[in-house]
Amino acid sequence: MTDDDDKTIIIEGVTDEGEQFRPSDWAERMSGSLSTFRNHRIIYSPMLQPSIKDGNRCVMLDPALKESNPELYNSILKFAKTNHLKICNEPEDNE
User: How far is CA 89 from CA 3, 5, 81, in A?
Assistant: First the structure.
């Protein structure tokens, strides 16, 4: 694992109670905020992309998004906290 992998913030679609977060396509919807379309396909930004971790849907959030788009960055973390989603590698200095 590289240093960049260690810095990536991972928001898992699992609540504090251990329940799957719904709707099931929440990660794709959230990642769509920075996506583009090319050749009839959606292309997710490397700064915000859906993924799977331990069988759960998740969003991979690059901390560099805080500099390039602080409003979106804070909105994503606020969403995760409001919905009691598991956040891995959360920065100490958030907000």
Answer: 12, 10, 14
Q: How far apart are CA 72 and CA 45, in angstroms?
A: 13
Other CB atoms closer than 10 Å to residue 89's CB: what's the count? 13
| 3-state secondary structure (DSSP) of residue 17 | coil
Give residue 2's pLDDT: 44
For the chain, domains (ranges, CATH) are 3-88 (3.30.70.2340)
Q: Which of 2, 10, 6 is nearest to 51 (CA)?
A: 10
Label residue 6 by pLDDT band (50, 70, 90). Answer: low
Amino acid at 69: N
Tally: H helices and E strands in the chain: 4, 6
